[in-house]
Amino acid sequence: MKINKIEIVGAIIVLVLLTSLILPKCFRALEQSKEIATKKGLSSLRSAIAVYYAYNNGKYPDSNIAKDLVDKGYIEKIPYVYIPHHKKSNYITTTNLDNNTDSGGWAYKVEDTPDSSGRTKGQIWINCSHGDWSKL
Question: Per the structure, how many domains does the chain have?
Answer without folding.
Answer: 1
